[in-house]
Amino acid sequence: MSSTAETKIVLRSAKDWPAWKDQFIGRAKGELMWQYIDPKEIFPKPFPSEPTEPNINHFEFKVPGSPAVPDPANSGNLTNGNHTPNSIYTLAQGHPPASDFTFSPRRDVSDLADRGFQTYSFVMTDYHRKVQMYKDKQQAVLGPK
User: Fold this and answer.
1) Distance (Å, rounded) from C-alpha 84 to C-alpha 75?
2) What is the pLDDT of residues 13-25, one digit of tens each?
3) CA angle 144–10–6, rounded 5-degree value
4) Residues 17, 23 contacting (CB under 8 angstroms)
5) pTM for the structure as a whole
6) At 70, phi and psi to the nearest 5?
7) How far, in Å, CA of 67 to CA of 61, rounded?
8) What are the pLDDT digits (tens) for 74-114?
9) Which of 30, 48, 115, 129 is deepest in the core (most CB within 10 A)?
10) pLDDT of residue 83
């Protein structure tokens, strides 16, 4: 079994330029960074900003003594002030919907309703994935510490 060792090309003179440039572009593309630094792009994509942690107050909480039951007169809205099924997409992005949402000063995960906890768990998993991607890209640019 043979292994191919990556040869690091050092730019010492003009004759090293073609090989060094090819190595640089290959690494940038391999790290999915070329789209941010391609000199042929008039408006290159901005480098991604660090993801923002979702706010727990933007998710459905339990309302003491009031189970969430559909309100037939209100086409599926929940009677305890929680979000409607149509606002789940907005909640999944970690933002409150424009209406039909009751903010609560509670900040404990145990106070989330079942659906709120499921949505929160999904959004937090996605947040952690995005943070790792951001750190990977940052390390690709800055190199190992």
Assistant:
1) 9
2) 999 999 999 999 9
3) 65
4) no
5) 0.51
6) -60, 140
7) 11
8) 444 444 444 444 444 445 555 555 544 455 454 678 888 89
9) 115
10) 46
CA distance 20 to 71: 67
Q: What are phi and psi of 50, to 5 degrees?
A: -65, 135
What is the rounded distance in angstroms from the CA atom of residue 73 to the CA atom of residue 26?
A: 60
CB neighbours of residue 73 within 10 Å: 7
Q: Locate 136 and state its tokens.
A: 């990977």
Check residue 22 and give its pLDDT. Answer: 93
What is the average pLDDT score of the chain? 74
Q: Cβ–Cβ contacts within 10 Å for residue 32, how many?
A: 12
DSSP conformational letter for 67: -
Whether residue 116 contacts residue 60, with contact meaning beta carbons closer than 8 Å, is answered with yes
For residue 19, give the 3-state DSSP assignment: helix
Contacts of 33 (CB under 8 A, 6+ apart): 137, 140, 141
Give residue for tokens 């951001």.
Answer: 134
- pLDDT value, residue 80: 44
Rounded to whole angstroms, the Cα distance separating 83 from 88 reads 7
How far, in Å, CA of 53 to CA of 104, rounded? 18
